[in-house]
Automatic annotation (TrEMBL):
<feature type="transmembrane region" description="Helical">
    <location>
        <begin position="147"/>
        <end position="168"/>
    </location>
</feature>
<dbReference type="InterPro" id="IPR013525">
    <property type="entry name" value="ABC2_TM"/>
</dbReference>
<keyword id="KW-1133">Transmembrane helix</keyword>
<feature type="transmembrane region" description="Helical">
    <location>
        <begin position="238"/>
        <end position="256"/>
    </location>
</feature>
<feature type="transmembrane region" description="Helical">
    <location>
        <begin position="32"/>
        <end position="51"/>
    </location>
</feature>
<feature type="transmembrane region" description="Helical">
    <location>
        <begin position="116"/>
        <end position="135"/>
    </location>
</feature>
<feature type="transmembrane region" description="Helical">
    <location>
        <begin position="63"/>
        <end position="85"/>
    </location>
</feature>
<dbReference type="GO" id="GO:0140359">
    <property type="term" value="F:ABC-type transporter activity"/>
</dbReference>
<keyword id="KW-0472">Membrane</keyword>
<protein>
    <recommendedName>
        <fullName>ABC-2 type transporter transmembrane domain-containing protein</fullName>
    </recommendedName>
</protein>
<dbReference type="InterPro" id="IPR051784">
    <property type="entry name" value="Nod_factor_ABC_transporter"/>
</dbReference>
<dbReference type="Pfam" id="PF01061">
    <property type="entry name" value="ABC2_membrane"/>
</dbReference>
<feature type="domain" description="ABC-2 type transporter transmembrane">
    <location>
        <begin position="29"/>
        <end position="221"/>
    </location>
</feature>
<feature type="transmembrane region" description="Helical">
    <location>
        <begin position="175"/>
        <end position="193"/>
    </location>
</feature>
<dbReference type="GO" id="GO:0016020">
    <property type="term" value="C:membrane"/>
</dbReference>
<keyword id="KW-0812">Transmembrane</keyword>
Length: 269
């Protein structure tokens, strides 16, 4: 019975993922994505890395390039914040809630394209930054970059799910909240300055956010540190991501239950 339920949920998840990718393909062509959105991401990393080059420190350039390439996967993954509002706007939220499968399954899988595209984007941007700024690329360690970005992105995806549940009641704030979320990560999670640069309260909060520990693990990996220095940080990032994902699913279910009680599960309501 459990195997049958798992297979059904997996089938629904795969279908939801395909729908998400089709929506993405309908919104972007390869030209608009490459010369529009992706170029914007490359410009961001090049800008901050170029600022580091003004200091004349190769270490500073490397620090900024790795940090800003890593945050890209978070920027992409946090687009999931807008998913609940989009579902209400399109009138599909009520249909998914009425379906026999848990809505959280379709929600998480339908936005999975954000995470996967973020991994691809982050990897490509890091590769370009490596070429532009002659960054060291230790083989085979550099081949693990997509995996590390995947862990970071999954952690951010869980956090975005949690935030998206709260944005459900305030659809007009979705883009403001999205931008504040990733800008906060850029500022406080060690992307451009170490986390210790900030007051102790902010430093403590940053330790509980996605990206912080995963970025440390990635920096340690590329610096040639032993596994004893890399894996604990990567494991902590995965645990933080799991926590935010569980919190996000719980908040999403609570928010949907509230919308059903109020009869406002669609924006038109």
């Amino acid at each position: 019975m459990r195997e049958g339920a798992l297979a059904r949920w997996l089938g629904v998840g795969v279908t939801a993922s395909r729908i998400g990718f089709r929506e993405f393909a309908a919104f972007y062509t390869w030209r608009t994505w490459v010369f529009g959105w992706f170029l914007r991401l490359v410009t961001q990393v090049v800008f901050f890395s170029a600022v580091g080059s003004l200091s004349g420190s190769g270490e500073r350039v490397r620090y900024l390039a790795v940090g800003n390439a890593s945050v890209i996967v978070c920027v992409e993954a946090l687009v999931v914040i807008t998913t609940t509002v989009r579902e209400r706007d399109q009138g599909t939220l009520a249909l998914q809630v009425a379906a026999p499968t848990d809505f959280a399954v379709t929600y998480l899988f339908r936005g999975a394209y954000c995470l996967l595209i973020g991994i691809v984007s982050g990897t490509l941007v890091y590769a370009l930054a490596t070429v532009f700024f002659s960054l060291p690329a230790p083989v085979p360690r550099v081949l693990c970059v997509p995996f590390f970005l995947g862990v970071i992105g999954a952690s951010a995806y869980g956090w975005g799910t949690f935030i998206g549940a709260w944005v459900l009641r305030r659809p007009g704030m979705q883009w403001l909240v999205l931008n504040l979320s990733y800008l906060s990560m850029m500022a406080f999670c060690g992307v451009n300055v170490p986390t210790g640069y900030w007051p102790s309260g902010i430093t403590f909060a940053a330790e509980l956010l996605p990206l912080t520990h995963g970025l440390r693990a990635l920096r340690a990996l590329l610096a040639g540190s032993p596994a004893s220095a890399v894996l604990p940080e990567l494991g902590t990032e995965a645990l933080i991501g799991a926590f935010w994902l569980m919190a996000g699913v719980a908040a999403l279910r609570w928010a949907i239950a509230g919308e059903r009680r109020r009869g406002t599960i669609e924006l038109s309501a």
